[in-house]
Amino acid sequence: MLVGHGTVRVPLAAMPHPCVTVISVMAIGKHMHERWLEERHHEYYYKLAKKMDYRSRASFKLMQIDDRFNIFRDGDRVVDLGAAPGGWLQVAKERVGEEGFVIGVDLRPIQPMPGVPTIIGDITEDATMKRLLDMFQGEADVIISDMAPNISGHYSTDHARSIDLCMYAVNVCDRILKKNGKLVMKVFYGDMFNTLIKELERRFRVVKVHSPDASRPTSSEVYVIAKGFLAETRVGLDIPEEATENKKQFSVKGNFS
Ligand SMILES: C[S@@+](CC[C@H](N)C(=O)[O-])C[C@H]1O[C@@H](n2cnc3c(N)ncnc32)[C@H](O)[C@@H]1O
């Protein structure tokens, strides 16, 4: 005998207990519905990005965040961390206008974009930070970070790695974000989230958490929007001369223990 739910058919003999059976079939149905929604959502933004010539679906997340929270102004100087393939760079460049300046950093190369310099490097390494400071020359109005670790599929590992990357983005703020500057940053939600928020509240007047419509409905990612950088945690611009590709920055850990 087979129990059907939509197109899923499960052999009853393989099922341990009638109660478990009902719950399992309902769970499969819910899972399939979520997957369907997810695919529709993915396809919608994928097609829109293609049509509008954006390099990634992620562009729409930044547009929606900016429309709601007024992040960019004409002439702003912006650092984009985890910028490949360049969707956020396109949006940031459009929104800060001709007078603005945007620079991108990523482990992966980014297809050249007129007027937008990029750095290939790991922002957790001194050498990359040093190159960023050298090329950027001055303070930033906005730091944006869409950095994501390679997904292991293990929820708490991915969350911990995401938090780690966030703290490196916070470190970039401590070095070059100007007083009253803004930060937009992706984080995978999990049990260290509140500690991250506390680190941000020490540094910014206003900290908000938002999930834009363009984020996948089942994603654990959320975006933190922080405004009014207090600049009290500012650290010097000095990076040791002997900085090498393998050397990690040392001053980025929050109190996560
Ligand atoms: C979701 S993608 C960014 C998409 C981008 N915002 C866009 O709109 O095209 C995340 C990026 O973070 C980058 N990344 C992860 N860890 C990094 C690190 N330590 N330093 C620099 N980039 C990193 C990855 O290489 C990846 O390209």
What does the model show?
The protein is built from six helices and nine strands, in the order ββααβαββαβαβαββ. The strands form two sheets. Strands 5-4-3-6-7-9-8 form a seven-stranded mixed β-sheet, with helices on both faces. Strands 1-2 form a two-stranded antiparallel ribbon. Strand 3 (77-81), helix 3 (87-96) and strand 4 form a beta-alpha-beta unit. The chain is α/β, with parallel strands linked by helices and 257 residues long. The longest helix has 34 residues, at 18-51. The protein has helices at residues 18-51, 58-69, 87-96, 126-136, 155-176, 193-201; strands spanning 2-5, 8-11, 77-81, 101-106, 118-120, 140-145, 177-188, 204-210, 221-229. The termini are far apart. Helix 2 (58-69) packs parallel to helix 3 (87-96). The chain has two domains: 17-53; 56-229, Vaccinia Virus protein VP39 (Rossmann fold), CATH 3.40.50. Helices cover 38% and strands 22% of the residues. S-adenosylmethionine is lined by residues 55-56, 58-59, 82-88, 105-108, 122-124, 146-148, 165.
